[in-house]
Amino acid sequence: MSDTIEKVKCLIIGSGPAxxxxxxxxxRANMFPVLYQGTQPGGQLTTxxxxxxxxxxxxGVTGPEMMIQLQEQAKRFGTDVRDGWVTKVDFSRPIxxxxxxxxxxxxxxxxIISTGASAKYxxxxxxxxxxxxxxxxSACAVCDGFFYRGQEVVIVGAGDxxxxxxxxxxxxxxxxTMLVRxxxxxxxxxxxxxxxxxxNIEILLNTETIEVKGDGQVVSSILVKERTTGKETExxxxxxxxxxxxxxxxxxxxxxxxxxxxxxxxxxxxxxxxNVEGVFVAGDAADHVYRQAITAAGTGCMAAxxxxxxxxxxx
Length: 315
Known about the structure:
- The structure is a single chain.
- Helices cover about 25% and strands about 25% of the residues.
- It is α/β, with parallel strands linked by helices.
- The strands form four sheets. Strands 1, 2, 3, 4, 5, 6 and 17 form a seven-stranded mixed sheet that branches. A five-stranded parallel sheet has the order 8-15-9-10-11. Strands 12-13-14 form a three-stranded antiparallel sheet.
- Helix 6 (about 190-195) links the parallel strand 10 (about 175-180) and strand 11.
- It starts with a strand and ends with a helix.
């Protein structure tokens, strides 16, 4: 362990839209924020090719480009943006202790958590290939469905979120094929009924994905297998959406912060406050409903303002 302990007024853990927005507000309020980017600098948006639904970009912007711009804006006002990730915390006392890369110890007056949530994928090599290529694999229908207007797509999932995203896609796409691995949905009856009565959604039960196929650049079809018979079928599709859930990146906070049953941090409704004074949360680490860049940015603003008010109350 390092013998040198750094003291920080405002530490921001995570670097997506929530983290950078919190940094902009905190820096402008003379809170001298230090931001650690984490294992995925820029967050999930760095895996998104085109962003067209964030205000202020009439011609759209790539996810990586937007994150670079947000980072530069945060640095412009004095944010200390650093490489590295937080590996341990101790929120048991008024001075919050945080360790970076298992070595550096930081004592913080306030902490803003913006570690986000990671989409779950099937783990197929072909799926990961086209995800990295930006050629037809997505975990967010609301983010990317627009690009598949009038086309045929496949979505994997059996829960409420999968049904909601399939229904959303049905309004944009010519046809939506929904793959459910088991013999029944996990979704609520009302959500299941909604997709079943939508004419351009075809539901395939007991069906699993074998391979995402294409020309190496873009997706053209999905190879699936009917689990009871073993029969393989190739489904024509230009888009492959994975809706099997997200995992919030909150494990290191579990001993100190209240989490829900799936690991999302529980905040005070309408605020960025957690159950620990001086620790705030922004973005997808607490949001399992919207998961959009714009909502993450909004809660980043809220977290910085709440942190500023907390510090003022201690003066």
